[in-house]
Structures are given as C-alpha cells and as structure tokens.
Amino acid sequence: MLSMTVVTTNTSAYFLDIIHMDTDVLTYFPIRRILVLSVLTFFLLATVSLLRRGNQAVVGAGRAVLITGCDSGFGNHLARRLDAQGFVVFACCLFPDEVGAQTLLKESSSNVKILKLDVTKDEDVMQARTVVQSNLPEKGLWAVVNNAGISDWSETEWNTMSDYHNMAEINLFGSIRVSIAFLPLVRASKGRMLFVSSVFAFFNCLTMGAYSISKRGLEAFADCLRVEMASFGVKVSIIQPGNFACATNILKKKTGPDIWEKLGRERQPMFNREYLDLACDYYMSTCSSGYQDSHLVTDAMIDAITVDRPKRRYLLVSKLDMVFFYALPYLPSFVTDALFYLSPMYNKRKAMLYSK
Asked: For 59, which DSSP code?
C-alpha cells in the first residue's frame, strides 16, 4: 500500500511539473525527439545502404578471370557462366587440344581464351602469365580461381609416397604456384582469389587421408593469404564442396585386384581380398549418391567473384549435413571417431581384416 502511494504521488508530481513548464521548455522536447529520430533514421538508411551494396554485382565487362582445371567439371561450367556475364575468361586446360577444351572454345564467345596449363610446372605457369598480361582487358585481371585438382581414395597403407607427393603437388603446391604468379595482377585490380577445397579439409574420413592432407594444407594457405591480402583490398574465398563426384570427372575408379597388386606381399596378409572388393563397391555407391550437377558450386563461385562482400567460406552440402558440419568443430574427438566405429561399413571392415 505504501509503495502504491509513493508511485501515485510521484506520477502526480510529474504531470504537475509538465503543466507548470514554460513555453520554451515545452518546445524543447519535440525538437529533441526530432533530432533523435533523424539520427536513428540516418543510421538505419546507412545500414540498409551497406547491406544493399554487399549484394551489388561486379560488372564483367572489362574484367578478366583466370580459371585452372577447365577441361571439365566445375572449371568448364564456370567458364561458360562467366563468359555469359561478359567477363574475359582465361580457361586453363591440361589438354587444350582435346574434347573438353575444344568444346568449350566452340560453344563460347571470343571472350574465352584457352591456355595450356599444368599447375605442377613452373614454365607453364610463367607462360600463362605472359599470355594473360598481353591480353588483359582495360580493368585488368579481376579474379583467379584455383580449381585444378585430383581426387583419390585409399587407406593409408594402400598409398605409396609417390601417391602422397602427386596429390599434394597438384592440389596444394599447384594452387600456391599459380597464386604467387598472378597475385600482382589481382592486387592491382583489388580483385578476388578463390580456392576450391573440400569438406574433407576438416572432416576426417576413412580412405581419404591423402586427399584430406592436400585440401587441409590448401585451406591453411588460403586463410593466411586472406589476412595478408586484406591490406591490399583483395578478397579471398574458399569453396568447400561436399559430394559432387558425379557432377565432375574427378571420381577415380579402381578395382579390388588393382589395390591387391599394389599392396605387395608384405601388406596383403592384413587385408582380405573380399574387403577390398567391398571397399570399392562402397566407395562407388557413396559417390554415386551425391549431387548430379555442379550448379550449387558454380553459383557459389559466381557469388565470390561478383558480390561486394563475398563469404570467406562457402560450405556446399545438404541442409542436414550443414548442421552436422557446423557442429563438428565443437565435438570432442571421441565423439566424431565414434561415428565411424558405429557405422556398418567400419564393423564389416574390422571383421574382415586378417581373415582369409
């Protein structure tokens, strides 16, 4: 009761004070409200303007993009889409005289230039840079898309050191070689650097060790480069596709007998021949269940190249997988390892090892 009386008394006093205010004081309050509302409106409009600016598309006319690995797959499809948007496209192919490159050339405008490029060879990269510099449009080289890469699946002991070196030489060092060569041109235009990685850069999976090493290293390089290039106005994005094996020709087919012969007599006793056949069937079945076309990936690439504020990473998986992959870094290792221990394939593998 006492608190109610105090509130009532204070409220009455407040209104009495307003009634007894002079005219100058009364006119002050509306002006202050107007000023506050004006400031808030200004910041709101500025925020909306910045958000809109983040979605504005970079015009392709007068700008060039270099893409590695355009013989097929993501690179080939991206070259076509950028051509349609008016970009000059330097489509780098390992086999420029074969069907993939020649079909791309035939079905594109004169803005598409086919270049011979093996990312493992310094002389190819330097030659490509010379050609690009001599044929740049007025606004220069806007983006480099490090797309060239290979994939393979194999348990750790099924690989030779040559297998590990080859994977890293193309997927990791090839991208570094191309990036260093073309960075001065991209820096001059304050453009973009793109790196095609994989979910296997951060997801440890049975049989994907060599591939994961190359992609994890690639992301480390891209992350460091992004921080360094920010001072020059260059933006760096990482593309992380999930299962797009059917949408590209990256799927490498192998058979149980192929693996068996490669193991040699020392390791053959550890791995059942039937398990090798099972592993091949399982791998091919899993890859075949993925995305059938590359639009999700090329959409992300276009976004990274053309919007004012591209994402640092583009995770390209199903919505359900995305929830899992976002949670993955926060899960303890024993939990993530248990995902494999509980899988039927892992248990079949364990039961078949060493058996005749």
From this structure: P
